[in-house]
Task: structure prediction
Amino acid sequence: MKRTFPSILLFLLPFLAAAQSPQEAGRSADADLRDALERLSALRAEIRDEKIPLAREVSDLERQLRDKRREVDRVQRRRDTQRIDLNQVEEGLRLRQDEIDYVSNLVAEFTRILDSRKDISERRLYSERLEPLLLAGEEDLSRQQRLMRMRGATGLGIDRMERLIGGYTFEGRAVSPGGRVEDGSFLLIGPLVYFASSETEGAGLALDLGAVDPNYFPLGGVFDAQIHDLVATGRGRGPVDPTLGDAFALEEVRETLWEHIQKGGIWIWPILAFAFLAFATALFKVFEIYTVKMPPPGTLHELLRLIDEGKKEEALAYAQKVPGPVGKMLVDGVLHIDEPVELIEEVLYERMLEIQPRLERLLPFIAVTAATAPLMGLLGTVTGMINTFKLITVFGTGDAKNLSSGISEALVTTEFGLIVAIPSLIMHALLSRRAQGVMANMERMGVAFVNGLTRRGNGSPPKA
Result:
């Protein structure tokens, strides 16, 4: 209110001055001015007096603000430090857990390898101890519990390794060659396993043939006695199988040719029929073609000499003595030496055309066999694979033995198709070449005969 009064007074001053005289107005204005200045001085003093406490209050507030900020920074740093420490602890814990998982996986892998590499004769010896270790990874256990349980696998593996180094004996049972399960003792020395029956005098090498119990194969004679002594005393000599049972396994699956053929299915029989016919035909053609006699060197020269001397009868008799189809061709040539050269050529060519079908007969059948056998083998492959897929539909792919019949049919027919086709192709090529050689020799002899007659003036000259 005090501040607004001078403003109102100044606003009303002109109106008051207008109502008063100039002297009075001046005096009044001076008085008002002095009064306003006094009030202004008082107001400034009041402001100056009030400014110092306010400045002190502001300074106190700013100091408190700085203190609060420092406290906030200290709390923030402490919280950050605690967070870093917690992260480090969590990271260390995670690394320790990863190490425990890694060690557990190593021990589990070692357990699986130990289970897979143990001999079939050791199955009853180690199954009860290995089974809980193999199932430890599937149970709901903590990392520490799982690792502590699987820790026994290392001791089990070390114990087995120490036994294998010197060999060890344990009780068990095995299947005899007659199919009878017998109790006895096993001797395990490295990869070699021996078995001696306690029920009979049987002894031999113990092998894994996929059954529940191992099979033992007697070696006969002194070897069985050695195995008995070796198993009983742990000392002595014994037979060694360097193939580790592969030789016995191969002997078990060895099959005869007839058994192998029977695996080919229905299409093996047409292939074998073609093979038999082609082989018989090839033998016949070998006898027929390779027994064709060729005239000895100088035969044509001697024949032309007799013809040149006019001894037709002697030349005919000489030509009749020439062996093979060439001799027949020369006989026809001698009989027509008085005819024109064109006619003689036609007569000789006719004889060649008569001989050629006899030389080349049945050769196309061998060629057909060479071309047909692989196709029938391919047909057998297709039918075999169809049967295989049918078996897969019924039995699945778990057991390969169920699929062996279709696969055998597919492979055996292809095998026999190629076995028949390759020799047939070779025999056809050789026989065809031999037949072409005979025909080429006849053609050469015929041309030489005609040329010889022309040079000696025999035969009628060719027409113009």
